[in-house]
Amino acid sequence: MTYIDKLINQIEELEPQVDTMFDKSAILYTDPNENYNGGFYLVGFDFHHWTKKDEKGQILCKEAYDNFYQNFELLLTKATPDIEQKINEANLEIKNLIEQNRAPTSIESGKAVLRKNTTIIKEYLELLRREENGLIIVPDTNALIQYPDPTVYQKVANTTDFTMVILPTVLSELDKLKLTHRNEDFRKKVKSVIKRLKGYRKQGNVLKGVTVNKSILLKMVATEPDFSYTLNWLDSRNNDDRIIANALELQTKNPSQRLIFVSSDINFQNKAELANLEVFDPDDFE
């Protein structure tokens, strides 16, 4: 499943969740001119208001929408000013409905307004789809040490045609481990991984990608992630978070491609899933 597919699924799962919240709520219309006696006649005011709110539903819907929008927002760099404004307005409308601030004219009209605005978001996601729907494999440091041969990852991809990307923090950790790890055999293993990677550099420009085993494109990323534009819970001082941020940046630049993050670390896996990244556990190779 691609990043775009995941986001569309999440916003579609939110719609019935908000519907349920609405069904447990109530709206009342108050006519300010009901007792009109020839004085001032009020027009142009909205006199619909919530008389009952589903506060538990609000909390659940708000959490689901906030998690969705944090990931979705990373794709807005691709939007034109007009589209971005349209999405910002849709976002405010959806938040207003979830927080049950300004009341719609009825429960059913509220559901209709919700879908009108979620459709704006889904239409933008569909705009980002590309015909190329390749597969990207991103191993963490331990996965790369354990399985340095790119052909092994054909088991993850279920195909011989994919792109394998080595991130800068992974390369830095390899350089550190070859010098500082207390186990000599492990240091030798790390050095052999580094030697293999340097061999790829001799084949060509690894930043653009070199071909391995005829069909695998191996690339290395030189730039660190931009922490001014990523998920706010990622910590730039934490190497795991740097790897997640780099993988997420790679995914948001290629939202119509499927990206699989390879790690056997449970905490790493949890963080990757929270960042909307697909995870594969290399322990499943065994």
UniProtKB/TrEMBL annotation:
Coiled coil location: none
InterPro entries: PIN-like_dom_sf, PIN_dom
Domain (PIN): residue spans on this chain: 135-270
Gene3D superfamilies noted in UniProt: 5'-nuclease
Record-given protein name: PIN domain-containing protein
Taxonomic placement: Bacteria, Pseudomonadati, Bacteroidota, Flavobacteriia, Flavobacteriales
